[in-house]
Dodecin flavoprotein
Amino acid sequence: MSHTYKIIELVGSSPISSDEAIKNAIASASQSLHHLRWFQVVETRGHLEEGLIAHWQVTVKVGFTLDSPD
Amino acid sequence: MSHTYKIIELVGSSPISSDEAIKNAIASASQSLHHLRWFQVVETRGHLEEGLIAHWQVTVKVGFTLDSPD
Amino acid sequence: MSHTYKIIELVGSSPISSDEAIKNAIASASQSLHHLRWFQVVETRGHLEEGLIAHWQVTVKVGFTLDSPD
Amino acid sequence: MSHTYKIIELVGSSPISSDEAIKNAIASASQSLHHLRWFQVVETRGHLEEGLIAHWQVTVKVGFTLDSPD
Amino acid sequence: MSHTYKIIELVGSSPISSDEAIKNAIASASQSLHHLRWFQVVETRGHLEEGLIAHWQVTVKVGFTLDSPD
Amino acid sequence: MSHTYKIIELVGSSPISSDEAIKNAIASASQSLHHLRWFQVVETRGHLEEGLIAHWQVTVKVGFTLDSPD
Amino acid sequence: MSHTYKIIELVGSSPISSDEAIKNAIASASQSLHHLRWFQVVETRGHLEEGLIAHWQVTVKVGFTLDSPD
Amino acid sequence: MSHTYKIIELVGSSPISSDEAIKNAIASASQSLHHLRWFQVVETRGHLEEGLIAHWQVTVKVGFTLDSPD
Amino acid sequence: MSHTYKIIELVGSSPISSDEAIKNAIASASQSLHHLRWFQVVETRGHLEEGLIAHWQVTVKVGFTLDSPD
Amino acid sequence: MSHTYKIIELVGSSPISSDEAIKNAIASASQSLHHLRWFQVVETRGHLEEGLIAHWQVTVKVGFTLDSPD
Amino acid sequence: MSHTYKIIELVGSSPISSDEAIKNAIASASQSLHHLRWFQVVETRGHLEEGLIAHWQVTVKVGFTLDSPD
Amino acid sequence: MSHTYKIIELVGSSPISSDEAIKNAIASASQSLHHLRWFQVVETRGHLEEGLIAHWQVTVKVGFTLDSPD
């Protein structure tokens, strides 16, 4: 059978690391969406305060199955 | 009057051809969205099994009218 | 606290100017979404009729807070 | 019927604004070409003199119908 | 001897397939230009009507010999 | 277990269609490589003769498992 | 004689328009740098508040003569 | 006064060097066009024979004044 | 009030991790610049020795306020 | 003396982190290749299962000396 | 007949010029590969010592026939 | 030890060749900066007069050590 996937774009943030920012974005997505399948990083940025990284901000695309459970 | 369009990103798949994968993505979108206006291909990929193309996977952006019927 | 933002892609149009097309896209988004935070221009195009710009069409990405009010 | 469109690339300039530079490019194109259909902005630059913008220079692609009037 | 080639940009359309849209663009080009040598696909889009692909629209660059027959 | 994949870049050609050109590239790769997993299209071009498409030429990246069978 | 130019990257902002944001960036640059020659737009973004554009933010590259007055 | 420029895309070739290939493209353009103003390199390629560079092939965009002599 | 920001490009390095390389770049920037506001990752590379990552090298753009303290 | 380097493209994976995925790709490369010199990240993706990151998948290019030891 | 081509990526270096760096990369490739057909420049860089260019480093993709001699 | 590098962007020009334009940019940079380490070409353009290349203009990024002599 041929699945269709939808891709949404999110920005996750974290004061800790770039990987944590990605995990936070995935965690937010998984609260309302099931069947998440993959993510891809679009951009890594961060907010600076007092010469330090206050928040890592990573833009990700997240793909999930549209049509059916598996 | 000035329309606003929304663009969503989908991945259609097909065991047959790249064009079929696109058509499948459009068909899925048209089940829940009306007033689809255009699509543009973002990426063409595929899944290989036993040295053959098991599924064509084409990422498309699909634009539709947000604000009103016409 | 770590926010997650969602990014959507819209095309605003206007017979007047490129900036108006962007404002129209933002205005449409703000009718259904709260906590809009930023936009970025993806592409500027337009529809021509009789040798003149009939509509400016500007594709923008709009980011908004997903998880909580502030 | 299936149209074919041709795309040409122009740089319009204006001392006034980026939108005017685009309009000037379209106006030049419409003097020799009929059936102009759309434009898309490729690049926005400008020439500076005495610390001010002397000319806005906007590169656009302009599409027009090749094969037939409609 | 050293040839110079010119590249033009066309959009071919077809109600049938993406490959047909490319062939239509090449066919239009060959009506007025000789010595066509190669094409490259720039973008694949399409116009949607009633939830179906009404026209495939493929932008191609077409290269041809400028200076001489061979 | 964590796999490592290798990606190679091929250009497949075909007088028939863009999809056939891709299939030919995959078929060549599968003669010497096992465990092919995916491909992605990098560029679609073609060679023109007498105003017609003599060969479709599609550049693809092909990924396969490096470290082990599964 | 052969000039060398230096290019710097600035983000200008304005509550009024995208063109004003560019002019503000140029005005800031011209306070400390002479011999500004050109600019090119890198990105157009904006900050949203209450569903409206609070600030346009345009990233520009600005080129100026390094080696000598003319 | 505000000029409009047109940009065309050419591929120059040379058995000698990449710079010669560009000069050959410019020379071809100047045979039929006056008021050439600038060029920019789009791509540098070459044709190989017997393990050597038989021809350098450089794609350039060439800009020239459309509307008037100066 | 409308701020202007300047963006500089740095490469931070670290034997430990990609995030550390970014932090080192920010730390260097903060020694001479105040009012750092954001960074964005441009490229992640690394130097290999004896089959291991000797140094992570991450290119970042760093934005800071030009015109005034806040 | 003038070295020539070869660049290969790999995808490393890891259940732990993006940096580990890169290290795994390098480790695989170093099993069969000597004189690895640098890597650059091409893309960061991941596979999701049950709303969590099951595998980080990072595409890297790895450069190594072709012609001689040093 | 339909050929399949393989593309490899090399970095040639030379203390003399960018063109020499490309020729050195081609020369290295031709020592082990026959049927080289074309190259395309991916990136031009260089190593600086004492304020001078110590080595030009040019990344090229080189295409060659996979399946058969002609 | 972990170095931090700064990258600046310059445009060198030369009436002679593209390589000379790069060398001129490096020469200008080395008058005020020590510890230059590498450059990378961003864009190659030129100014045309009377159908000939009056100046080659090459944009380069130049990297140098920020934190310490070596």
